[in-house]
Each structure stands twice: as structure tokens, then as C-alpha cells.
Amino acid sequence: MSGTAKVRVAVLISGRGSNMVALAEAARDPAFPAEIVLVLSNNPDAEGLARAAALGIPTRSIDHRAYPDRASFDAAIDAVLRESGADLVCLAGFMRILTDGFVEGWAGRMINIHPSLLPLFKGTHTHAQALAAGVRLHGCTVHFVVPELDAGPIVAQAAVPVREGDDPDSLAARVIVQERRLYPAALALVAGGKARLEGDRVIISEPPPEAVLFSL
After folding, report:
1. Alpha-carbon distance 8 to 54, whole Å?
2. Is 125 a catalytic residue?
3. Span 155-191, pLDDT tens digits
4. Which of 54, 78, 106 is the last residue of a domain?
5. How many domains would you assign to the chain?
6. What is the pTM of this model?
């Protein structure tokens, strides 16, 4: 990245796009090191597509049901991403498991937000998993994407307390507030060159206060 050029980011969504909106709003700041150049969904009816369009962001939908297998679907996504000139991909509630080949093609250039404090509670239903385990802290994680599900090097995390009487919905509501703060902060670190991959770890040169958030 030379001069004041911003990193070009594509965001992949499947639903409401709440974290995508948080990224887009952060990117409005002239000092933010990234710009959202595309929002892409596997669900043509995703609410997030309309929200992105209202923000003036180009959108595309590629219905996974129109493809015979994951590899052909991923190839279609890859072609659109490269056509957009994206430097970095952000997964934001993208509910498709990507093929190893696709992930390796974007190695070091794709990040995801997961609703747990990884490496705890991978996969789905993370809030129910946390409640069943009886943990006192739960939260969210931004990590680089690797072929193994929810296992990539961690960029940043935010924690919330688990309270007596919580159910998955109440816990999820507390976590999503932190997701919307954490993802833009983590993207700024990555796009600004302040979070870099060294092997299986992320080295952060100038962590902002938001790099780890505790909401009590």
C-alpha cells in the first residue's frame, strides 16, 4: 500500500449484515485504512444486501444453490472478488464452509469474526455451548481464516461476563455489541499493517485500546 491508498475490502455475508454495517460505518472515517468495495452474499434475499446498497456499497449475490458443489460455488465467489480488486476479505456472518483451495488462495488476506473466545466453542450455537460449559467469560474473536474451521491465528478478542439467568439470546445480545466494536478495530489493525502474520501467530505492533475489550 503506497501513499494514502486504502486497502480494498470485500465483505461476505449471509443475513442481516450487522457486522458489515459496523465495518462500513468505520470505513467512512477518512483516517480508516480500509474501504469497503463490495458486499457479497450467498443469499439473494439477505437483508444485508439492501443495507449495503443504502450505504452506497456495490453488492453482488451468488446463490450457492445454483452450483453443483462447493468448489464451483467458491470459484464463482473468487472470480467476483478478484474482479472487484479486493485486497482483503472479511467474513461477517457468512454461513458457508469454504473449500481448502479457496481459503489457501486468500491465505493471509481473509479474516472472520466468531462469536466465542477461541479456541473455545468452535462451530455453531456458541452461546449455548458457553452456557452448557459454565464459563464466566464469553465473547468474540477476530482471526485469520485457515482451512481448519475457526482455528486461524487470532487478531483480537473481546470479552463479556456470563450472568446468572442468561440464556443464549441474552448472551448473544451482549456479545454482538462487542462484535460491532471489535471487528472494525481488528480490520484497522490488519489493513493498517499493525497486525501481521508470523507463522501461526499474529504480531501486533501498535494495539489500540479496543484490541481487547471487557464489557462489565
Report:
1. 19
2. no
3. 999 999 999 999 999 999 999 999 999 999 999 999 9
4. 106
5. 2
6. 0.93
